[in-house]
Amino acid sequence: xxxxxxxxxxxxxxxxxxxxxxxxxxxxxxxxxxxxxxxxxxxxxxxxxxxxxxxxxxxxxxxxxxxxxxxxxxxxxxxxxxxxxxxxxxxxxxxxxxxxxxxxxxxxxxxxxxxxxxxxxxxxxxxxxxxxxxxxxxxxxxxxxxxxxxxxxxxx
Length: 156
Fold this sequence. Notes:
Layout: E1 2-4, E2 8-13, H1 19-26, E3 33-40, E4 51-57, H2 60-77, E5 83-89, E6 91-94, E7 98-106, H3 109-126, E8 130-135, E9 138-141
Parallel strand pairs: 2-5
Antiparallel strand pairs: 1-2, 3-7, 4-6, 4-8, 5-7, 8-9
Helix pairs in contact: 2-3
């Protein structure tokens, strides 16, 4: 399911992510700053194996609802932000492919950078997303997991 409103585009899907599409979508005539964060699958992990791919699992409706909560808090904290897009992959993500993309547009860079950083950090803390690391001959759930909290519990 994709939630796309005038100034908010949230998606969790197995489709490959297209960071340029998100950056283009958030761009507004009254915005001089567009910040895009792209988290990509990497080959290193705490398991000391060379990771070939990641597998993400979540409840899509719950994840998208939690991401919309993140967007709402970002809008409260940075009211000048004009548009926010956040997409997260599920399923198999090969090395160097985007797993998550956050794009934020605002009139000035400071608010765009701050809001984008908040969005990715809050997403990691508030959205239940399970990650399996896959290497040649094996796999394991990531040990980087942390307790899920409500976005309202995050310090300003």
